[in-house]
Amino acid sequence: MSASTIIVGYDGSAESRAAAAWALDQAGRTGAPVEFVHALEWPSYAPATRTIGAPPVWPEGEAARHLKGLMDEVVAQAARTSPQVEVRTFTENAPAAATLRDRSEGAAMVVLGSRGHNAVAGIGSVSVAVSAHAHCPVVVVRDGTPPAGPVVVGVDDSDCARLALEFAYRQAAARGTAVHVVRAWKPPAPPLERGPVIAEHLATAERAALDEVTARWRQKVPGVTTTSELVAGHPAQALTAAGERAQLLVVGSRGRGALRGALLGSVSQHLLRHATCPVAVVRATSPS
């Protein structure tokens, strides 16, 4: 697997077509190859004489023809819209989330639609699982055209946030746009909120931390315009609001407030369900 390969989960749904279009645009900007992946766990089939323990076979007939047509269609569409992009396909009779996780090893990113044919609760269970377990950043795309705004990235003091910043700046440089850095902080709870000196002290410390981060990245990537915003409130709500004017919203898979052992933080999960623009989830370490 090339380190620049973009993996796309594709099932023919409107959301997966949007993911394919986003990935092809990304590949056109970076010169990366694209691999369209379709995985579906078909029921095991074998003739009556099948030996016990023998592996199931890939379905024949109409199902196989439908699958071939599905993949041929997306390859043909890619050739029409992005003829400069190298594309290939991969199909497997296996659970989709596990297949995409395996294909993500050594890849640049995985791109998924927000919902596939098996969508639940506003976002596909595959998107959530892959975002939590992939070996590379995962971008979840909604059907529709995002605004031509900046790349927005959420930061705190975690390792995940530092990796999210690096990913956001690479994306902004490739897209010729700005980075907008958002840091949310929680004002003091009662009765401390009655002490304005305490609240002011906390806000000053949070602003200093944000200014330090943005100054460092302005120096590292001077060709990308950087703006910043300090928000008093929950990071999930702050980033959802900022994402309304973003072409891409980037977040770490876990922040400093994540529960130990949780593979996908509550902020990431909230954004995957509620953000109106594509969301990139960047992991701090490769999952097992």
UniProtKB/TrEMBL annotation:
Gene3D superfamilies attached to this UniProt entry: HUPs
Pfam families registered for this protein in UniProt: Usp (PF00582)
Domain UspA residue range list: 5-142, 150-283
Domain of life: Bacteria
Protein family membership: Belongs to the universal stress protein A family.
Protein name: Universal stress protein
Organism per entry: Spirilliplanes yamanashiensis
